[in-house]
Protein backbone atom coordinates (compact mmCIF):
# COMPACT_ATOMS: atom_id res chain seq x y z
CA UNK A 1 0.00 0.00 0.00
CA UNK A 2 2.82 2.40 0.84
CA UNK A 3 4.55 1.78 -2.49
CA UNK A 4 1.30 2.42 -4.34
CA UNK A 5 0.84 5.69 -2.46
CA UNK A 6 4.41 6.79 -3.23
CA UNK A 7 3.93 6.09 -6.95
CA UNK A 8 0.68 8.05 -6.86
CA UNK A 9 2.50 11.02 -5.32
CA UNK A 10 5.30 10.77 -7.91
CA UNK A 11 2.68 10.95 -10.68
CA UNK A 12 1.19 14.19 -9.29
CA UNK A 13 -0.45 15.93 -12.30
CA UNK A 14 -0.61 19.25 -10.47
CA UNK A 15 3.18 19.58 -10.81
CA UNK A 16 4.09 21.15 -14.17
CA UNK A 17 7.67 19.89 -13.91
CA UNK A 18 6.40 16.34 -13.45
CA UNK A 19 4.37 16.49 -16.66
CA UNK A 20 7.43 17.24 -18.79
CA UNK A 21 9.02 13.91 -17.82
CA UNK A 22 8.69 10.58 -19.53
CA UNK A 23 6.70 7.82 -17.80
CA UNK A 24 9.94 6.15 -16.73
CA UNK A 25 11.39 9.35 -15.24
CA UNK A 26 8.13 10.17 -13.50
CA UNK A 27 8.16 6.91 -11.56
CA UNK A 28 11.54 7.80 -10.07
CA UNK A 29 10.16 10.94 -8.43
CA UNK A 30 11.95 14.25 -7.96
CA UNK A 31 14.29 13.54 -5.06
CA UNK A 32 17.61 11.75 -5.26
CA UNK A 33 17.79 8.43 -3.47
CA UNK A 34 18.96 8.94 0.09
CA UNK A 35 22.15 7.25 1.22
CA UNK A 36 22.25 5.49 4.63
CA UNK A 37 23.05 8.03 7.30
CA UNK A 38 22.35 10.99 5.03
CA UNK A 39 18.66 11.39 5.83
CA UNK A 40 19.07 13.15 9.20
CA UNK A 41 16.94 16.29 9.28
CA UNK A 42 15.46 15.68 5.88
CA UNK A 43 13.82 12.25 5.71
CA UNK A 44 10.22 11.47 4.80
CA UNK A 45 9.19 11.06 8.45
CA UNK A 46 10.63 14.48 9.25
CA UNK A 47 8.70 15.99 6.34
CA UNK A 48 5.43 14.40 7.46
CA UNK A 49 5.89 15.51 11.05
CA UNK A 50 6.66 19.15 10.29
CA UNK A 51 3.75 19.30 7.84
CA UNK A 52 1.17 18.12 10.38
CA UNK A 53 2.53 19.11 13.79
CA UNK A 54 1.06 22.64 13.51
CA UNK A 55 -2.39 21.01 13.93
CA UNK A 56 -2.55 22.18 17.51
CA UNK A 57 -5.19 20.09 19.31
CA UNK A 58 -4.08 16.69 17.99
CA UNK A 59 -1.83 14.27 19.87
CA UNK A 60 1.14 13.53 17.58
CA UNK A 61 2.45 10.05 18.49
CA UNK A 62 5.72 8.88 16.93
CA UNK A 63 5.96 5.09 16.71
CA UNK A 64 9.66 4.38 16.89
CA UNK A 65 12.82 4.82 18.94
CA UNK A 66 12.91 7.91 21.11
CA UNK A 67 15.56 9.56 18.93
CA UNK A 68 13.06 10.02 16.09
CA UNK A 69 10.76 12.12 18.27
CA UNK A 70 13.71 13.89 19.86
CA UNK A 71 15.08 14.96 16.48
CA UNK A 72 11.73 16.07 15.08
CA UNK A 73 10.02 17.73 18.03
CA UNK A 74 9.44 21.48 17.78
CA UNK A 75 11.68 21.99 14.75
CA UNK A 76 9.42 24.77 13.48
CA UNK A 77 8.22 27.85 15.31
CA UNK A 78 4.54 27.25 14.52
CA UNK A 79 2.30 29.23 16.90
CA UNK A 80 -1.10 28.36 18.34
CA UNK A 81 -3.98 30.60 19.40
CA UNK A 82 -5.55 27.82 21.47
CA UNK A 83 -4.54 24.28 22.37
CA UNK A 84 -0.94 23.59 23.36
CA UNK A 85 -1.18 19.81 23.01
CA UNK A 86 0.90 19.85 19.82
CA UNK A 87 3.83 21.04 21.95
CA UNK A 88 3.87 17.75 23.86
CA UNK A 89 6.14 15.09 22.36
CA UNK A 90 4.60 11.60 22.36
CA UNK A 91 6.57 8.49 21.39
CA UNK A 92 6.21 4.74 21.89
CA UNK A 93 9.99 4.57 22.52
CA UNK A 94 10.24 1.02 21.21
CA UNK A 95 13.11 -1.12 22.51
CA UNK A 96 14.95 -4.31 21.58
CA UNK A 97 12.09 -6.58 22.74
CA UNK A 98 9.66 -4.69 20.51
CA UNK A 99 11.99 -5.25 17.58
CA UNK A 100 12.02 -9.00 18.29
CA UNK A 101 8.34 -9.50 19.13
CA UNK A 102 6.77 -6.59 17.23
CA UNK A 103 5.62 -3.21 18.51
CA UNK A 104 1.92 -3.26 17.62
CA UNK A 105 0.67 -4.02 21.17
CA UNK A 106 2.99 -1.36 22.52
CA UNK A 107 1.52 1.14 20.03
CA UNK A 108 -2.07 0.25 20.94
CA UNK A 109 -1.34 0.74 24.66
CA UNK A 110 0.30 4.10 23.93
CA UNK A 111 -2.78 5.28 22.01
CA UNK A 112 -5.02 4.23 24.91
CA UNK A 113 -2.84 6.03 27.43
CA UNK A 114 -2.94 9.27 25.42
CA UNK A 115 -6.73 9.14 25.00
CA UNK A 116 -7.29 8.35 28.69
CA UNK A 117 -5.03 11.17 29.87
CA UNK A 118 -5.57 13.94 27.30
CA UNK A 119 -8.79 13.08 25.39
CA UNK A 120 -7.70 14.81 22.16
CA UNK A 121 -10.11 15.07 19.19
CA UNK A 122 -7.75 12.74 17.29
CA UNK A 123 -4.41 10.93 17.53
CA UNK A 124 -1.94 11.03 14.64
CA UNK A 125 0.42 8.04 14.55
CA UNK A 126 3.69 8.45 12.61
CA UNK A 127 5.49 5.42 11.21
CA UNK A 128 9.31 5.47 11.40
CA UNK A 129 12.05 3.28 9.94
CA UNK A 130 12.49 0.60 12.61
CA UNK A 131 8.83 -0.46 13.06
CA UNK A 132 8.35 -0.29 9.28
CA UNK A 133 11.26 -2.67 8.74
CA UNK A 134 10.03 -5.18 11.32
CA UNK A 135 6.57 -5.12 9.74
CA UNK A 136 4.37 -3.26 12.26
CA UNK A 137 1.04 -2.56 10.56
CA UNK A 138 0.10 0.86 11.92
CA UNK A 139 -2.96 1.10 9.65
CA UNK A 140 -4.46 -2.01 11.28
CA UNK A 141 -3.59 -0.80 14.79
CA UNK A 142 -5.08 2.64 14.15
CA UNK A 143 -8.26 1.12 12.70
CA UNK A 144 -8.66 -1.14 15.76
CA UNK A 145 -7.98 1.76 18.14
CA UNK A 146 -10.50 4.00 16.35
CA UNK A 147 -13.19 1.34 16.75
CA UNK A 148 -12.27 0.59 20.36
CA UNK A 149 -12.06 4.18 21.64
CA UNK A 150 -14.56 5.86 19.26
CA UNK A 151 -11.88 8.39 18.38
CA UNK A 152 -10.14 9.11 15.05
CA UNK A 153 -6.68 7.54 15.09
CA UNK A 154 -4.91 8.52 11.88
CA UNK A 155 -1.94 6.55 10.47
CA UNK A 156 0.79 8.67 8.84
CA UNK A 157 2.77 6.05 6.93
CA UNK A 158 5.98 7.88 6.00
CA UNK A 159 9.05 6.02 7.34
CA UNK A 160 12.25 7.93 6.77
CA UNK A 161 13.89 5.48 4.38
CA UNK A 162 11.26 5.88 1.62
CA UNK A 163 12.58 9.27 0.54
CA UNK A 164 13.33 12.89 1.34
CA UNK A 165 11.44 15.48 3.36
CA UNK A 166 9.36 16.74 0.44
CA UNK A 167 7.97 13.24 -0.18
CA UNK A 168 7.04 13.11 3.51
CA UNK A 169 5.15 16.42 3.15
CA UNK A 170 3.06 14.92 0.38
CA UNK A 171 2.49 11.59 2.18
CA UNK A 172 1.22 13.59 5.16
CA UNK A 173 -1.16 15.36 2.79
CA UNK A 174 -2.35 12.02 1.45
CA UNK A 175 -3.15 10.90 5.00
CA UNK A 176 -5.33 13.98 5.51
CA UNK A 177 -7.10 13.30 2.22
CA UNK A 178 -7.67 9.63 3.05
CA UNK A 179 -8.69 9.88 6.69
CA UNK A 180 -9.60 13.45 7.72
CA UNK A 181 -10.80 15.87 5.02
CA UNK A 182 -14.52 15.46 4.32
CA UNK A 183 -15.29 13.37 7.41
CA UNK A 184 -17.30 16.10 9.19
CA UNK A 185 -19.75 18.84 8.22
CA UNK A 186 -19.49 22.45 9.47
CA UNK A 187 -22.35 23.91 11.48
CA UNK A 188 -22.71 26.70 8.92
CA UNK A 189 -21.09 27.88 5.70
CA UNK A 190 -20.82 31.28 4.01
CA UNK A 191 -19.97 32.46 0.47
CA UNK A 192 -16.73 33.82 1.98
CA UNK A 193 -15.16 30.56 3.23
CA UNK A 194 -11.62 29.75 2.08
CA UNK A 195 -8.82 27.30 2.82
CA UNK A 196 -5.15 28.29 3.05
CA UNK A 197 -2.91 25.34 2.20
CA UNK A 198 0.82 25.04 2.87
CA UNK A 199 0.90 27.79 5.52
CA UNK A 200 2.36 26.83 8.91
CA UNK A 201 1.90 30.03 10.98
CA UNK A 202 5.63 30.29 11.60
CA UNK A 203 6.22 32.90 14.30
CA UNK A 204 2.53 33.83 13.94
CA UNK A 205 2.60 34.89 10.27
CA UNK A 206 -0.97 33.73 9.68
CA UNK A 207 -2.12 36.22 12.30
CA UNK A 208 -0.65 39.09 10.28
CA UNK A 209 -2.90 38.16 7.34
CA UNK A 210 -6.05 36.95 9.11
CA UNK A 211 -7.20 40.46 10.21
CA UNK A 212 -7.08 41.62 6.57
CA UNK A 213 -9.34 38.76 5.51
CA UNK A 214 -11.67 39.29 8.48
CA UNK A 215 -11.99 42.97 7.55
CA UNK A 216 -13.37 41.79 4.19
CA UNK A 217 -15.67 39.27 5.86
CA UNK A 218 -13.63 36.34 4.52
CA UNK A 219 -13.47 33.35 6.86
CA UNK A 220 -10.56 30.91 6.91
CA UNK A 221 -12.48 27.65 7.15
CA UNK A 222 -9.20 25.75 7.55
CA UNK A 223 -5.51 26.51 7.41
CA UNK A 224 -3.55 23.39 6.52
CA UNK A 225 -1.87 23.24 8.83
CA UNK A 226 -0.85 26.39 10.74
CA UNK A 227 -2.83 27.05 13.94
CA UNK A 228 -5.31 24.41 12.73
CA UNK A 229 -7.80 22.35 14.72
CA UNK A 230 -8.69 18.80 13.75
CA UNK A 231 -12.38 19.56 13.20
CA UNK A 232 -11.54 22.53 10.93
CA UNK A 233 -9.51 20.31 8.60
CA UNK A 234 -12.22 17.62 8.67
CA UNK A 235 -14.73 20.26 7.49
CA UNK A 236 -12.44 22.00 4.99
CA UNK A 237 -14.13 20.37 1.97
CA UNK A 238 -16.92 22.98 2.24
CA UNK A 239 -14.68 25.95 1.41
CA UNK A 240 -15.49 28.00 -1.71
CA UNK A 241 -11.86 28.69 -2.74
CA UNK A 242 -8.31 27.95 -1.65
CA UNK A 243 -4.91 29.62 -1.67
CA UNK A 244 -1.79 27.49 -2.06
CA UNK A 245 1.21 29.00 -0.25
CA UNK A 246 3.83 26.27 -0.74
CA UNK A 247 3.11 24.09 -3.78
CA UNK A 248 6.25 21.98 -3.33
CA UNK A 249 4.88 20.62 -0.06
CA UNK A 250 1.12 20.25 -0.52
CA UNK A 251 0.10 20.63 -4.16
CA UNK A 252 -1.54 17.20 -3.97
CA UNK A 253 -4.01 18.41 -1.32
CA UNK A 254 -5.07 21.46 -3.35
CA UNK A 255 -5.40 19.53 -6.60
CA UNK A 256 -7.38 16.62 -5.12
CA UNK A 257 -9.71 18.95 -3.22
CA UNK A 258 -10.40 20.76 -6.48
CA UNK A 259 -10.99 17.40 -8.17
CA UNK A 260 -13.22 15.95 -5.43
CA UNK A 261 -15.02 19.01 -4.07
CA UNK A 262 -14.69 21.57 -6.92
CA UNK A 263 -12.67 24.02 -4.79
CA UNK A 264 -10.61 26.22 -7.16
CA UNK A 265 -7.16 27.24 -5.95
CA UNK A 266 -4.27 29.49 -6.91
CA UNK A 267 -0.69 29.79 -5.70
CA UNK A 268 0.19 33.06 -4.04
CA UNK A 269 2.38 34.69 -1.43
CA UNK A 270 1.90 36.99 1.55
CA UNK A 271 5.53 38.16 1.50
CA UNK A 272 5.90 41.73 0.25
CA UNK A 273 3.41 44.49 -0.39
CA UNK A 274 2.65 43.73 -4.05
CA UNK A 275 2.31 39.97 -3.54
CA UNK A 276 0.02 40.44 -0.55
CA UNK A 277 -2.22 42.75 -2.57
CA UNK A 278 -2.33 40.36 -5.53
CA UNK A 279 -3.20 37.43 -3.24
CA UNK A 280 -6.08 39.38 -1.68
CA UNK A 281 -7.37 40.27 -5.14
CA UNK A 282 -7.20 36.67 -6.33
CA UNK A 283 -8.96 35.33 -3.23
CA UNK A 284 -11.78 37.83 -3.74
CA UNK A 285 -12.00 37.08 -7.46
CA UNK A 286 -12.34 33.33 -6.86
CA UNK A 287 -14.99 33.87 -4.18
CA UNK A 288 -17.02 36.13 -6.48
CA UNK A 289 -16.80 33.48 -9.20
CA UNK A 290 -18.17 30.96 -6.68
CA UNK A 291 -21.15 33.13 -5.72
CA UNK A 292 -19.98 35.84 -3.31
CA UNK A 293 -21.40 39.36 -3.93
CA UNK A 294 -19.48 41.35 -6.56
CA UNK A 295 -19.04 44.28 -4.16
CA UNK A 296 -16.34 42.19 -2.44
CA UNK A 297 -13.95 43.24 -5.22
CA UNK A 298 -14.54 46.93 -4.52
CA UNK A 299 -14.06 46.49 -0.78
CA UNK A 300 -10.85 44.55 -1.47
CA UNK A 301 -9.43 47.37 -3.59
CA UNK A 302 -10.31 49.90 -0.90
CA UNK A 303 -8.54 47.80 1.74
CA UNK A 304 -5.46 47.34 -0.47
CA UNK A 305 -5.24 51.07 -1.21
CA UNK A 306 -5.42 51.92 2.48
CA UNK A 307 -2.95 49.27 3.68
CA UNK A 308 -0.41 49.90 0.91
CA UNK A 309 -0.38 53.63 1.66
CA UNK A 310 0.08 52.96 5.35
CA UNK A 311 2.92 50.48 4.71
CA UNK A 312 4.81 52.72 2.26
CA UNK A 313 4.53 55.62 4.67
CA UNK A 314 6.24 53.54 7.38
CA UNK A 315 8.88 52.24 4.94
CA UNK A 316 9.84 55.67 3.63
CA UNK A 317 12.50 56.21 6.29
CA UNK A 318 14.23 52.91 5.46
CA UNK A 319 14.37 53.13 1.66
CA UNK A 320 17.29 55.61 1.42
CA UNK A 321 19.28 53.51 3.90
CA UNK A 322 18.67 50.21 2.07
CA UNK A 323 18.67 51.34 -1.57
CA UNK A 324 21.41 49.50 -3.51
CA UNK A 325 22.34 47.17 -0.66
CA UNK A 326 23.19 43.69 -1.96
CA UNK A 327 21.54 40.59 -0.52
CA UNK A 328 22.44 36.92 -0.78
CA UNK A 329 19.31 34.83 -0.19
CA UNK A 330 19.87 31.21 0.88
CA UNK A 331 16.44 29.66 1.30
CA UNK A 332 14.06 27.68 -0.91
CA UNK A 333 10.52 26.88 -1.95
CA UNK A 334 8.10 29.78 -2.10
CA UNK A 335 10.55 32.10 -0.30
CA UNK A 336 13.05 31.77 -3.17
CA UNK A 337 10.88 34.15 -5.23
CA UNK A 338 8.44 35.81 -2.82
CA UNK A 339 11.15 37.30 -0.57
CA UNK A 340 13.06 38.49 -3.67
CA UNK A 341 10.07 40.54 -4.72
CA UNK A 342 9.70 41.94 -1.21
CA UNK A 343 13.36 43.04 -1.04
CA UNK A 344 13.27 44.66 -4.47
CA UNK A 345 10.31 46.77 -3.41
CA UNK A 346 12.57 48.73 -1.02
CA UNK A 347 15.37 49.09 -3.57
CA UNK A 348 17.66 46.27 -2.46
CA UNK A 349 19.57 44.17 -5.01
CA UNK A 350 19.45 40.38 -4.75
CA UNK A 351 22.81 39.07 -5.98
CA UNK A 352 21.71 35.44 -5.75
CA UNK A 353 18.89 33.23 -4.51
CA UNK A 354 19.03 29.52 -3.79
CA UNK A 355 16.63 27.19 -5.59
CA UNK A 356 17.61 23.86 -4.05
CA UNK A 357 14.07 23.29 -2.69
CA UNK A 358 12.23 25.17 -5.43
CA UNK A 359 9.93 23.86 -8.14
CA UNK A 360 10.12 24.67 -11.85
CA UNK A 361 7.29 27.17 -11.29
CA UNK A 362 9.30 28.85 -8.51
CA UNK A 363 12.28 29.22 -10.87
CA UNK A 364 10.11 30.75 -13.59
CA UNK A 365 8.78 33.29 -11.11
CA UNK A 366 12.35 34.19 -10.11
CA UNK A 367 13.17 34.88 -13.78
CA UNK A 368 10.05 37.05 -14.09
CA UNK A 369 11.10 39.08 -11.04
CA UNK A 370 14.89 39.23 -11.51
CA UNK A 371 15.15 38.81 -15.28
CA UNK A 372 16.39 35.96 -17.43
CA UNK A 373 19.96 36.44 -16.13
CA UNK A 374 18.91 35.85 -12.53
CA UNK A 375 21.64 34.22 -10.44
CA UNK A 376 19.92 31.07 -9.15
CA UNK A 377 22.04 28.90 -6.87
CA UNK A 378 21.18 25.23 -6.93
CA UNK A 379 23.56 24.08 -4.22
CA UNK A 380 26.18 26.41 -2.74
CA UNK A 381 28.84 24.91 -0.48
CA UNK A 382 29.88 26.80 2.68
CA UNK A 383 33.26 27.50 1.05
CA UNK A 384 31.60 29.11 -2.00
CA UNK A 385 29.21 31.01 0.25
CA UNK A 386 32.11 32.35 2.30
CA UNK A 387 34.01 33.41 -0.82
CA UNK A 388 30.98 35.28 -2.15
CA UNK A 389 30.47 37.09 1.14
CA UNK A 390 34.12 37.84 1.86
CA UNK A 391 34.61 39.35 -1.61
CA UNK A 392 31.87 41.85 -0.67
CA UNK A 393 29.48 40.74 -3.37
CA UNK A 394 26.77 40.89 -0.71
CA UNK A 395 26.17 43.34 2.14
CA UNK A 396 23.93 40.94 4.08
CA UNK A 397 22.91 37.30 3.96
CA UNK A 398 19.38 36.04 4.61
CA UNK A 399 19.26 32.32 5.32
CA UNK A 400 18.50 29.62 7.85
CA UNK A 401 20.32 29.10 11.11
CA UNK A 402 22.70 26.48 9.71
CA UNK A 403 24.31 29.07 7.40
CA UNK A 404 24.72 31.85 9.95
CA UNK A 405 28.24 30.84 10.95
CA UNK A 406 29.48 31.30 7.38
CA UNK A 407 28.24 34.90 7.47
CA UNK A 408 29.78 35.49 10.89
CA UNK A 409 33.10 34.09 9.70
CA UNK A 410 32.97 36.44 6.70
CA UNK A 411 32.06 39.33 9.07
CA UNK A 412 28.87 40.02 7.15
CA UNK A 413 25.47 40.78 8.73
CA UNK A 414 23.02 37.89 8.77
CA UNK A 415 19.26 37.60 9.28
CA UNK A 416 17.25 34.43 9.88
CA UNK A 417 14.59 34.01 7.17
CA UNK A 418 13.84 30.30 7.51
CA UNK A 419 11.47 28.24 9.62
CA UNK A 420 13.34 28.73 12.92
CA UNK A 421 12.96 32.54 12.84
CA UNK A 422 11.48 34.47 15.72
CA UNK A 423 9.92 37.31 13.70
CA UNK A 424 6.87 37.12 11.43
CA UNK A 425 7.25 38.66 7.96
CA UNK A 426 3.87 38.09 6.27
CA UNK A 427 1.46 40.71 4.99
CA UNK A 428 1.87 44.48 5.03
CA UNK A 429 2.84 44.53 8.70
CA UNK A 430 5.34 41.73 8.15
CA UNK A 431 7.03 43.62 5.31
CA UNK A 432 7.64 46.57 7.62
CA UNK A 433 9.02 44.21 10.26
CA UNK A 434 11.33 42.52 7.72
CA UNK A 435 12.76 45.83 6.51
CA UNK A 436 13.23 47.01 10.09
CA UNK A 437 15.16 43.84 11.00
CA UNK A 438 17.36 44.10 7.88
CA UNK A 439 18.13 47.73 8.71
CA UNK A 440 19.01 46.81 12.30
CA UNK A 441 21.33 44.04 11.12
CA UNK A 442 23.07 46.15 8.45
CA UNK A 443 23.68 49.19 10.64
CA UNK A 444 24.56 47.39 13.85
CA UNK A 445 27.85 49.01 15.02
CA UNK A 446 29.31 45.62 15.87
CA UNK A 447 30.20 45.02 12.20
CA UNK A 448 32.48 48.05 11.87
CA UNK A 449 34.21 47.01 15.08
CA UNK A 450 34.53 43.41 13.95
CA UNK A 451 36.16 44.36 10.64
CA UNK A 452 38.87 46.45 12.27
CA UNK A 453 42.29 44.96 12.87
CA UNK A 454 42.77 43.57 16.36
CA UNK A 455 44.73 45.93 18.68
CA UNK A 456 47.70 43.58 18.82
CA UNK A 457 47.76 43.32 15.03
CA UNK A 458 47.60 47.11 14.72
CA UNK A 459 50.55 47.56 17.14
CA UNK A 460 52.62 45.00 15.26
CA UNK A 461 51.92 46.78 11.97
CA UNK A 462 52.88 50.14 13.49
CA UNK A 463 56.36 48.83 14.37
CA UNK A 464 57.19 48.47 10.68
CA UNK A 465 55.99 51.90 9.64
CA UNK A 466 58.79 54.38 8.73
TrEMBL record:
The keyword Protease does not apply. The lineage of its organism: Bacteria, Pseudomonadati, Pseudomonadota, Acidithiobacillia, Acidithiobacillales. The keyword Membrane does not apply. GO terms for molecular function: nitrogenase activity. SUPFAM superfamilies: Helical backbone' metal receptor (SSF53807). Keywords: Nitrogen fixation. It comes from Acidithiobacillus sulfuriphilus. Residues 43-442 form the Nitrogenase/oxidoreductase component domain. Pathway: Cofactor biosynthesis; Fe-Mo cofactor biosynthesis. It comes from the Bacteria. This is Nitrogenase iron-molybdenum cofactor biosynthesis protein NifE. One of its GO terms (biological process) is protein-containing complex assembly. InterPro entries: Nase/OxRdtase_comp1, Nase_comp1_CS, NifE, NifE-like. This protein may play a role in the biosynthesis of the prosthetic group of nitrogenase (FeMo cofactor). Belongs to the NifD/NifK/NifE/NifN family.
Amino acid sequence: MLQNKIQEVFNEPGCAKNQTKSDKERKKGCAKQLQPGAAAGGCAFDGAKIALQPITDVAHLVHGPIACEGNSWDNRGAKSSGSRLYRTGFTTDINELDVVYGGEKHLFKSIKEIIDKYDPPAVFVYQTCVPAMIGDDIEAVCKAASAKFAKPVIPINAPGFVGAKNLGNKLAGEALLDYVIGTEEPESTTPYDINIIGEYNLSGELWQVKPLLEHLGIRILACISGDAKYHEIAQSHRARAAMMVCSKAMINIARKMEERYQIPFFEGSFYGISDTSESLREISRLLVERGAPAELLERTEALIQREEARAWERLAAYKPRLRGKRVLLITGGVKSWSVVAALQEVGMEVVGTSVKKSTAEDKERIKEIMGQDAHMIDDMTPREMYKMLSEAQADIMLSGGRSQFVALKAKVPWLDINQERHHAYAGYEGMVDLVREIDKALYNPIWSQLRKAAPWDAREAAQWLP
